[in-house]
Write a structure and sequence with these properties.
2 domains; alpha+beta; Arc Repressor Mutant, subunit A; Env_Response_Regulators; 26% strand; cNMP-bd_dom; 12 strands; cAMP-binding protein; Jelly Rolls; 4-stranded antiparallel sheet; DNA-binding transcription factor activity
Length: 227
């Protein structure tokens, strides 16, 4: 991958200097995983930072035999950055929702890069703060109706990772259990709300191609109280 394409794909590196990008590309390791494969096991956290080139992954927390999805990440995002600074035991893993391509940088080399490039260090802090704010927004919505929480989740996924098409903004057709977990609602409510959104013509689900299209993202954002 060329430095320009790498820079454009990952917002984290928007302000990084060219030397930083060239060095990172010389040390990255490429990975490909099929849907359903564990990308990162709980005992591997802290070994590297991973960047999503294509596809979708979910971060899960394990509670004994129960599994809860904490986050869904798509193209241009990254994970593992906090674990390299925290050596406490982990109870989470990362699973590929679709076929996925990743790049990884070892923890030691990534930390060296942050120290060498202050602009990258600052950009990293900005994106981590944004994630914390998104978590706070989710907490603030915990008492809102299930439909508002689910639609807000869909809009957020579309805004962060969606691909514009002639019909609308396209994302992955996520399992309802995962959407329910990150929206903090029940799986039954998720199924009912998705059916209603589909019947009203606000979304279009294509199971064959595993896509979900938000036909009018502005209308859905208004429904979720985002505008």
């Amino acid at each position: 991958m060329q430095t320009k394409a790498f820079n454009e794909l990952f917002p984290l590196f928007n302000t990084a200097n060219p030397e930083t990008l060239e060095w990172l590309l010389s040390v990255v390791v490429e990975h490909e995983y099929p849907a359903g494969r564990a990308v990162l096991m709980e005992d591997a956290w802290g070994n590297a930072v991973y960047f999503v080139v294509s596809g979708w992954v979910k971060v899960r927390r394990l509670y004994g035999e129960n599994v809860v999805t904490l986050a869904i990440l798509g193209q241009g995002d990254f994970f593992g950055e906090m674990a390299i600074l925290d050596e406490s035991p982990r109870s989470t893993d990362v699973l590929a929702l679709s076929d996925v391509k990743l790049l990884s940088v070892s923890a030691q080399r990534f930390i060296q890069t942050l120290f060498k490039d202050p602009q990258l260090h600052h950009r990293m802090l900005q994106l981590m703060v944004r994630r914390l704010r998104q978590t706070n927004i989710r907490l603030q919505r915990r008492h809102q109706p299930p439909a508002v929480k689910l639609v807000s989740t869909l809009v957020s996924l579309a805004e962060n990772y969606g691909q514009p098409t002639e019909k609308g903004t396209e994302i992955f057709n996520f399992p309802y259990k995962d959407l329910a977990d990150i929206s903090d609602i029940s799986a039954d409510d998720t199924a009912k709300i998705m059916d209603k959104l589909d019947s009203k013509g606000w979304i279009n689900i294509d199971p064959e191609n595993q896509t979900l299209c938000l036909l009018n993202i502005k209308q859905l954002a208004h429904l979720a109280g985002r505008v």
